[in-house]
Amino acid sequence: MNETLREAPSATEVAGHQLLLRAGFVRQMAAGVFSYLHLGQRTLQKIEAIMRQEMNALDGQEIKMPLVHPAALWQASGRWYEIDAELGRLVDRNGRSLTLALSHEETLAELARQEIHSYRQLPQMAYHIQTKWRDDPRPRAGLIRSREFTMLDSYSLDANEAGLDAQYETHFAAYFRIFARCGLPVLAVEADVGMMGGTLAHEFMYLTPIGEDTLLLCDGCGYRANRQVATFRKPENSGDVQTVQFVAELVDGEEKMEKVVTAVLPLSSQINETKLVHLLDAQRLRPTAEQATDIWVVDDGVSDWSSEANLVGDIAAAQEGDACTNCGQPLGTVRAVEVANIFKLGTRYSGTMGATFVDENDEARPIVMGSYGIGVTRLLACLAEHHQDAAGLIWPVSVAPYQVHLVALRGGEETAVTLYQNLQQAGVEVLFDDRDARPGVKFNDADLIGLPLRLTVSQRSLGAGGVEVQARAGGETAVVPLDALVIYITDWLAAAG
Ligand SMILES: [Zn+2]
Description:
Layout: H1 15-22, E1 26-30, E2 33-36, H2 38-57, E3 61-62, E4 68-70, H3 71-77, H4 79-82, E5 89-91, E6 97-100, H5 105-115, E7 124-133, E8 148-158, H6 161-182, E9 187-190, E10 200-207, E11 213-217, E12 224-226, E13 241-252, E14 255-266, H7 273-282, E15 294-299, E16 311-313, E17 332-346, H8 348-353, E18 356-358, E19 364-366, E20 368-375, H9 376-386, E21 388-389, E22 392-393, E23 404-408, H10 413-425, E24 430-433, H11 439-449, E25 453-457, H12 459-463, E26 467-471, E27 477-480, H13 485-496
Parallel strand pairs: 3-7, 14-15, 15-16, 23-24, 23-25
Antiparallel strand pairs: 1-2, 4-6, 5-6, 7-8, 8-20, 9-10, 10-17, 11-12, 11-17, 13-14, 17-20, 18-19, 21-22, 25-26, 26-27
Helix pairs in contact: 1-9, 2-6
Bound molecules: zinc ion (ZN).
Zinc ion (ZN) binds next to loops.
């Protein structure tokens, strides 16, 4: 089940994804839907083991919530109406509406409603590693933007905001540990709460030119934010303005009404649609007689706007070179992939879904929630993007599907079989290439798959005194005598891991 390929089977523009395809880690089944072959699944298991250790260290309870949810839960939270075609909807044989899990805030809030009654049961934290479905209109870049994906998601439950703050901070630190142990450098930035709702969010970002997100960074004070929420010091406006028109859908329960929104900005600015949407949401703009046709929104950087604007606020996108809000230094931009996000949900779900507890004074109050998620399969893709060279993948020891690639060549076959058994007995994870193939084919595959160490046993290596050991990263080579080999390998792996 793990044929390697000379060329990637489809037009994939992302190098890491090409390598995952060619090295036999994943196969595509449909747009944004993948199978994980043996090597891919082993790598996922390594990543998930690290995640479990770090979540258990926060006293998290591992659970597993379903992939299929009753629509009633999503109707109770309101997201059934707020989210459009991205939500996978189906109907069972009895005519009941269901959804595929896009995330698990609703199911967790429902569990909390059933299980938690008293302040004595708080705080708690629960996590699971589970499949999600998000019907993305533009799946691309392989596992980086797929429709079916795996996430680690966890949920904190507290009696008050101080408890939420504490659990948010411990997650923040744990996420950095998870990424460091997997071998992926990340930045945390302020982010939009988006479709999760709540009051505060951070994203963990892997910087790469293939990323779809743009980050604004300040060298002066360390300010970092996703372009969706980044602020900047507005320059003096010359009075030259532009207008941008949108058709916006205002939602009130099950009622939807289309409105024309006209945004007014300085000529040099670009519209930030996320900010615009939040401004409209914050004002709870509803269709009324006075607003029968149009809503006018004016950016606060426009100086001379004297008409009857419905709203004035920050709706401009921060751009490279704009002045930092904090310190005035010019902001820089980088591209990034979002690999995780954390949200202070507060009572966004518990309030609407009835997940309450009784406090010390016998009063019922909604549970204060946080939600935290890392894309497991997206992390796999980013690791492949980050750890590679022209010949193939270069896995860090911590997440490599196997630790050692054992290559048997002519004259070394019998010794290799013994070595395979000895290494396995010593707890070393060995991928054994005992195929009847040319040395060049085997070496190319070893480089492509990218396990940390390659061991070559041949008539020639035995003649030179033992087994040739080559590190995939750096490429240094040694010939190690057979009787010293197991210790050599276990020491090397311990030092590198
Ligand atoms: Zn600054």
